[in-house]
Specification:
two-stranded antiparallel sheet; 19 helices; globular; alpha/beta; Amidase signature (AS) enzymes; 35% helix
Length: 553
């Protein structure tokens, strides 16, 4: 029987009451485009070649490059071609080795990424619209790193590496817009995790596009769209394959080799979805392991930043830099781990003794089946399991109620006071002044936030029920079968991991018949990131499934 096609919907909106019906109706054919949803991914019916808005109406390409044209005068096409083998698809240790050997410099590395972004990202037949802003001081900062490295031992693997930030993460010198016109002048100080990066010598290359307000704004818009950045496009199939959201620009930029690595953020699926859709590695950590201070919020209950990289090694390096207690974050976790804690996990490819649960329904997917074979060949035991019949009631209300109180806290504690924004209502009113420019797809979700209310007890009950149900979804089969983790696809079970506050890690597992990438997703209990990186590394090294997008070599 032909499955019923469901409308593609934005992050979180799918009703939990329909999740079991959705499980029965999904065929998981390779032609499906996955969307961020409550439990599992809906089948897409939207034609992604038909966008109301494609290019940004606010980013003027010529102006974007004014700060760099002079410095890039001596960076020619021949220089670019000579450096490509040293940088494209290379991991951080390899790039650092080239620099140590004098084949490359931090200045040349930064110029290479700038040149490549200018070459591909906007206003051409291959444009991806993945970048919103660039750090105007990146070249001078890179030169400083070269000077610091002279006659000194490398301080940290991240030293001098150009990193992109999802544009809901505060960084000095560039506005933090969350993709919204209302925040186009939101100049701030560095977020806590940005300070962590800089303390180890990382370079902030710029800001990546995203689904506006982290895909909790319009309701009927395609993933990857923001009023500031325009429509982000997938390098594996421009206007055809969905980018995933909301960390769309971060996933696309990493896939297209526009940076060494990027940081995304997730409430439910916003790292896992674009990472898997763009054939990169995405880690959604345990809530509180990485600071959320200075990041435009949806939910203080569920939000977390996380690294997005081309490979597991780089992801572990990023995690070694990013974790750390932040006393201003109510959920921050105090960890005594030393630097190198996560990269230490990558010393073995052995999965002997590891037990992973594979959802029986997903065995229809040939890529998933093949990934399981790879894990078995590495020594893992695979146990086929059924999905628990667990609902996630009032999920959307949790997000409504959290954002209603959390966004004003961001405005007052981290945002630019000159914006004179204090609430969701203020943003709604701002957008109504010029709706065709600020919200061509509407602002239905913000209107829902403004209308939602609850008592303290009701809100607490919503959170407690969701967390209990999410943990039950994973804990019951894991306990029954003595599992180390469960295996999913893309962001199919992102919402359950979100409310359980469990970590999830996706790694490329191949490509569907239409060329759409897919990811194998590991979900484990809290604070199991080190082990997850080890398992995923073993799979990655054995499978080697990631391929760079063909038109961006």
């Amino acid at each position: 029987m032909k499955p019923t096609l469901l409308l593609i919907i934005f992050l979180f909106i799918f009703s939990c009451k329909n999740s079991s019906k959705q499980v029965e109706s999904e065929s998981l054919k390779s032609s499906e485009i996955q969307a961020d949803t409550i439990g599992l991914s809906a089948i897409a019916t939207k034609d992604f070649r038909e966008f109301k808005v494609l290019d940004s109406k606010y980013i003027i390409n010529e102006k974007l490059w004014n700060d760099f044209n002079k410095d890039l005068e001596d960076f020619t096409e021949s220089t670019y071609e000579r450096l490509k083998p040293l940088i494209i698809e290379q991991n951080i240790p390899t790039i650092q080795k080239h620099i140590q050997e004098g084949k490359l410099s931090y200045e040349a590395l930064s110029k290479f990424y700038l040149y490549r972004i200018r070459k591909f990202d906007r206003e051409n037949d291959l444009s991806l619209n993945s970048i919103i802003a660039l750090n105007p001081n990146i070249i001078s900062e890179a030169k400083q790193k070269d000077n610091e490295l002279k006659n000194r031992k490398l301080k940290h693997a991240i030293f001098g590496m150009p990193i992109l930030l999802k544009d809901n993460i505060d960084a000095a010198g560039m506005p933090t817009t969350a993709g919204a016109i209302a925040l186009k002048d939101n100049l701030t100080e560095d977020a806590f995790i940005v300070s962590k990066l800089k303390s180890k010598g990382a370079l902030i290359l710029g800001k990546a596009n995203l689904s506006e307000w982290a895909y909790f704004f319009c309701g009927d818009c395609p993933s990857g769209y923001s009023a500031i950045g325009g429509q982000t496009l997938n390098p594996y199939g421009r206007k055809i394959i969905d980018t995933g959201g909301s960390s769309s620009g971060s996933g696309v930029a990493v896939a297209a080799n526009f940076c060494v690595a990027a940081i995304g953020s997730e409430t439910s699926g916003s790292i896992l979805s674009p990472a898997s859709q763009n054939s990169v590695v995405g880690l959604k950590p345990t809530i509180g392991l990485l600071s959320r201070s200075g990041i435009v919020p949806i939910s203080s209950t569920l939000d977390t930043p996380g690294p997005m990289t081309k490979n597991i090694v780089d992801n572990a390096i990023m995690m070694d830099v990013l974790f750390g207690e932040d006393t201003s974050d109510s959920k921050s976790i105090y960890a005594l781990w030393e630097d190198g804690f996560y990269t230490e996990s990558l010393k073995t490819n052995d999965l002997k003794g590891k037990r992973f649960g594979a959802f029986k329904r997903l065995m229809e997917d040939s890529l998933y089946v093949n990934a399981i074979k790879v894990l078995k060949n590495q020594g893992a035991t695979i146990v086929e399991i059924e999905e628990e019949k667990v609902d996630l009631p009032n999920f959307i209300r949790l997000l409504n109620l959290d954002m209603k109180k959390d966004l004003p806290v961001y405005f007052s504690s981290f945002g630019n006071k000159d914006l004179k924004l204090a609430s969701i209502d203020d943003v709604i009113a701002f957008n109504l002044k010029d709706s065709s420019m600020t919200m061509p797809y509407g602002q239905k979700l913000f209107e829902g936030i403004a209308a939602d209310t609850a008592t303290k007890k009701e809100f607490a009950d919503i959170k407690n029920t969701l967390k209990s149900n999410g943990q039950l979804f994973f804990d019951k089969p894991m306990k029954a079968h003595d599992l180390d983790a469960v295996l999913s696809i893309n962001n199919y079970h992102a919402a359950f991991a979100a409310v359980a506050e469990y970590p999830a890690l996706t790694v490329p597992m191949g490509y569907s018949e239409n060329g759409a990438p897919k990811g194998l997703t590991f979900i484990a209990r809290r604070l199991q990131e080190k082990l997850m990186l080890q398992w995923a590394y073993a799979y990655e090294q054995a499978s080697k499934m990631r391929k760079a997008p063909a038109n961006y070599n």
